[in-house]
């Protein structure tokens, strides 16, 4: 019997090991390719790397130079404008569409997929379509002229003060349907008994939404904000496809700044520093959010 | 769509209903307009575009632009059309989706049914990896791909997409398996079933829906990726999105807008088809990716 016992013991111990062995490659990949790389980029941001990585330590010089660069400050201001408008408009449109769709609408099954399909497209496709649509000589402006409204002007995409707003238009077009879906799911989860009780008390529809429904949608607001925020910071493809960062540098965002300084302007140290700033911005929002979500699940 | 079909108790009257329909239809037009413009103008000859109205239907219907976009248009330096890049994208997407989905399923299974100390922390690390701005990994990734000798190849891109796709696929499977009764797994263990046997016989047969969600999510993300393709693909492994961007933004010659549109629709077609065929699962994936934990 002891022999068999021993064998069983080895078997259970092996059984205990197998999950860890299977999990190991994924964990190793994440630790190296995500966290190792973050450390590496962080280190490069403290060196005088130019075209190639160098390991000569220069402290926080790159960060000081980064924040002295007009291009970086333009990119930051653009990001603030873009992110604020993008998040706000997507939330307003998404919430409005969700509430309207929730009014026992016939054809909801047809409308919902129409609102949402842009989310399946690449930002490059979206950019290609909107670039043309917004081009004064070809798109909307030209069409209005042909239709007889000859004073109509819409040349934002060629205007260095207005071009950043064209990014907002295209990005809102792509994502607002998704925000609608998040709010609609939230609305469908609300207990109708609460609404009925308020109706018996004589609450108007407006009051019903303002005082009961919208406060109950808090989790959906939070998720929408977090998703839109990290998409705004990561925005790269859309800028490349829609404006190429131009006219001039008018629509440069941190993501495009990082790419051009690292790979075409041979300032890898500065590029790395800008990437670190981007990561820290995302982390400042994501880490508390994920922490609370995971914590809630653990209870 | 994964939302419950319960209707709101709010009542709206007749006139308000008319307004609601009006607004909803206007928004539907807003979302459809760019697709309509691309589609109609891709079927016009170029002369009709530059001289005409983008909203009008073609007078001379032609698929010339589609043929050109597929096989003869100038992409970068060579007049190959988008065809080779479409193939590149397929060769990249299929293995990347397959590998990341299988790994996600195994990881999710382990993190819920074979729990150990620190598993939540590990999962948190994987989850955060989904949301990092990828600019932070571009420089070292370029180095590593070079060291491994797979810079500028499809294998290199597959590796990149698998590594940065594991987080999401693990998230999906973990959340799905978390609601699967652990007692069944325990009972199977007592009966002597091992790790793989339980996975194969008990977990996999119920994993259909979440596998579809994960595959669609990974497929859409990887097909639509531009940043990694532009950074690591070089010329020979260039995926569709990068090729499309080169086609549209190449500065030489006459701008063939009809060809650009045909190309854009080609690049959109695979993900659009998936969305049309399996939209329900697509939405479920979006929601699961947004409401985490």
Write up what this structure looks like:
The complex is a heterodimer of chains A (299) and B (293). Chain A is mainly α and 299 residues long. Chain A has a single domain (64-298), classed as MetI-like fold (Orthogonal Bundle). In chain A, 74% of the residues lie in helices and 0% in strands. Chain A contains 13 helices and no strands. With 293 residues, chain B is mainly alpha-helical. Chain B folds into 2 domains: 14-66, no CATH class; 83-290, Orthogonal Bundle (MetI-like fold), CATH 1.10.3720.10. Chain B is built from 13 helices and no strands. The longest helix of chain B has 34 residues, at 257-290. The radius of gyration of chain B is 23 Å and the shape is globular. The two termini of chain B are 20 Å apart. The relative contact order of chain B is 0.15. At the A-B interface, helix 1, helix 3, helix 4, helix 5 and helix 6 of A face helix 1, helix 4, helix 5, helix 6 and helix 7 of B.
């Amino acid at each position: 019997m002891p022999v068999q016992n021993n064998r069983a013991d080895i078997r259970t111990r092996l059984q205990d090991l197998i999950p860890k062995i299977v999990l190991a490659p994924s964990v190793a990949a994440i630790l190296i390719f995500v966290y190792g790389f973050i450390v590496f980029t962080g280190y490069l941001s403290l060196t005088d790397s130019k075209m190639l990585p160098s390991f000569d330590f220069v402290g926080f010089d790159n960060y000081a130079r980064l924040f002295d660069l007009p291009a970086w400050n333009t990119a930051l201001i653009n990001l603030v404008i873009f992110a604020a408008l993008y998040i706000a408009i997507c939330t307003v449109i998404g919430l409005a569409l969700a509430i309207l769709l929730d009014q026992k609408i016939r054809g909801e099954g047809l409308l919902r997929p129409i609102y949402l399909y842009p989310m399946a497209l690449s930002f490059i496709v979206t950019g290609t379509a909107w670039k043309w649509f917004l081009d004064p000589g070809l798109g909307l402006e030209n069409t209005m002229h042909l239709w007889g409204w000859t004073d109509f002007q819409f040349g934002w995409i060629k205007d260095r003060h207005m071009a950043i707003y064209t990014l907002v238009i295209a990005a809102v077009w792509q994502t607002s349907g998704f925000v609608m879906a998040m709010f609609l799911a939230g609305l469908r989860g609300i207990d109708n008994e609460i609404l009925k009780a308020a109706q018996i008390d004589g609450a108007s529809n407006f009051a019903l939404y303002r005082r009961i429904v919208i406060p109950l949608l808090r989790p959906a607001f939070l998720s929408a904000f977090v998703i839109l925020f990290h998409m705004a910071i990561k925005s790269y493809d859309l800028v490349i496809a829609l404006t190429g960062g131009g006219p001039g540098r008018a629509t440069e965002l941190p993501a495009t700044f990082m790419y051009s300084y690292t790979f075409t302007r041979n300032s890898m140290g500065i590029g790395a520093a800008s990437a670190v700033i981007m990561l820290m911005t995302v982390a400042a929002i994501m880490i508390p959010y994920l922490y609370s979500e995971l914590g809630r699940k653990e209870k | 769509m994964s939302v419950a079909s319960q209707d709101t108790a709010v009542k709206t009257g007749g006139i308000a209903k008319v307004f609601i329909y009006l607004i909803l239809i206007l928004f539907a037009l807003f979302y459809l307009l760019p697709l309509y413009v691309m589609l109609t103008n891709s079927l016009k000859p170029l002369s009709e575009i530059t001289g005409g109205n983008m909203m009008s239907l073609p007078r001379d219907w032609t698929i010339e632009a589609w043929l050109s976009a597929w096989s003869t248009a100038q992409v970068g330096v060579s007049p190959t059309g988008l065809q080779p890049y479409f193939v590149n994208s397929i060769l990249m997407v299929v293995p990347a989706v397959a590998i990341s989905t299988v790994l996600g399923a195994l990881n999710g299974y382990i993190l819920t049914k074979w729990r150990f100390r620190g598993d939540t922390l590990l999962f948190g690390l994987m989850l955060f990896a989904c949301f990092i701005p990828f600019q932070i990994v571009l420089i070292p990734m370029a180095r590593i791909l070079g060291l491994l000798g797979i810079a500028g190849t499809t294998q290199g891109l597959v590796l990149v997409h698998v590594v940065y796709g594991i987080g999401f696929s693990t998230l999906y499977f973990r959340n799905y398996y978390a609601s699967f009764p652990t007692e069944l797994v325990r009972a199977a263990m007592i009966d002597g079933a091992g790790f793989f046997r339980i996975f194969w016989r008990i977990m996999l047969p119920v994993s259909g829906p979440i596998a579809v969600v994960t595959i669609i999510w990974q497929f859409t993300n990887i097909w639509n990726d531009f940043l990694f393709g532009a950074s690591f693909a070089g010329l020979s492994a260039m995926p569709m999105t990068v090729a499309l961007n080169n086609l549209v933004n190449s500065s030489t010659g006459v701008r063939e807008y009809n060809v650009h549109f045909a190309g854009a629709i080609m690049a959109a077609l695979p993900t659009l088809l998936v969305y049309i065929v399996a939209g329900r699962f697509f939405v479920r994936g979006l929601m699961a990716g947004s409401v985490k934990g």
